[in-house]
Design brief:
37% helix, 7 helices, hydrolase, Rossmann fold, hydrolase activity, acting on ester bonds, two-stranded antiparallel sheet, SASA
């Protein structure tokens, strides 16, 4: 019996690093004061559902901190940003937000970036309006995002919004109305936050979701997913200071629904590139 117990303990010790790597979470969250000058604190609102919140597996690179990338935590305090950024569900993991924040900080060394995580897994676009309640997580997504953004804006300047959502709206009835609802939501955020020209970047849905049999049995995106992705493209024609990013080349984590960590980081880079493009074009128009 003693021999078996020793073997079990040795096996447990050998496997411990692997188990820890699979469930790596930040142990310590360090509070950090933002810069005193509001113009030096650029704020970004992260909204949408689970693929913005992130469901990728957290690795060591996702817990490394940067003193110029902060996160507004659930309690409304600023801290050094680490994944998971979001707290909508216990399954929150790696999303695009942290990579996006790091890239935006690298693009302008003179500023500190403040990330405002507000995505809610499973939330359809209908709950992203004033007063709407989402029973799954017992929150009002739009109202709470406004509250958190306004709190952050007491110390910084809203520099952009990134949005990834649409999976819940992949039905014939909902996808047909998606374009108008998203257009209205963008206008509402800008009006309620008194930021009429704040850049807004939306992410398309990935091809691995909601597939249907195509020619020779090869899977292809469903008509509803295709309709939502087309809507995101078409919004460029009638919404100012707006851009979208592609999800081409991304992979799921094995559930055909959520991006894996590598894909989430890739999207973070794409969000930053699109955001920078909008910010630069906005500055050129203002001169």
């Amino acid at each position: 019996m003693i021999y078996k117990a020793l073997v079990f303990l040795l096996l447990l010790t050998a496997l411990a690093p692997q188990v820890q790597a699979q469930n790596l979470q930040p142990v310590v969250r360090k509070l950090q004061a933002p810069p005193a000058r509001k113009e030096k604190f650029q704020l970004y609102l992260l909204v949408g559902q689970s693929n913005m919140a992130g469901r990728g597996q957290v690795e060591a690179q996702d817990t490394a901190t940067n003193p110029r990338v902060l996160r507004l935590n659930k309690a409304g305090q600023w801290e050094l940003a680490q994944d998971p950024l979001h707290f909508d569900k216990p399954t929150a993991g790696v999303g695009p937000g942290l990579t996006f924040g790091r890239d935006m900080a690298a693009l302008d060394p003179s500023v500190v970036v403040g990330l405002i995580p507000c995505a809610v897994g499973g939330s359809g676009i209908d709950v992203w309006q004033p007063g709407a309640y989402f029973p799954d997580t017992q929150v009002k997504p739009y109202d709470e995002a406004l509250d958190r953004a306004r709190l952050a804006m007491q110390q910084g300047r809203l520099a952009g919004i990134i949005w990834h959502q649409g999976e819940t709206d992949c039905t014939p009835e909902k996808s047909a109305a998606y374009q108008q609802k998203l257009r209205d939501m963008i206008a509402r955020f800008r009006q309620d936050l008194q930021a009429p020209t704040v850049p807004f970047v939306a992410g398309q849905l990935p091809a691995f979701q909601f597939t249907t049999p195509g020619p020779k049995g090869k899977p292809q995106p469903s008509p509803d997913l295709t309709r939502i992705n087309r809507a995101l493209v078409q919004l460029k024609h009638d919404v100012g200071h707006y851009e979208y990013i592609s999800t081409e080349g991304t992979h799921d984590r094995g559930d055909q629904l959520h991006f894996d960590a590598a894909a989430a980081r890739l999207l973070g880079h794409r969000y930053a590139q699109a955001m920078r493009k909008l910010q630069q074009s906005g500055r050129s128009r203002s001169h």
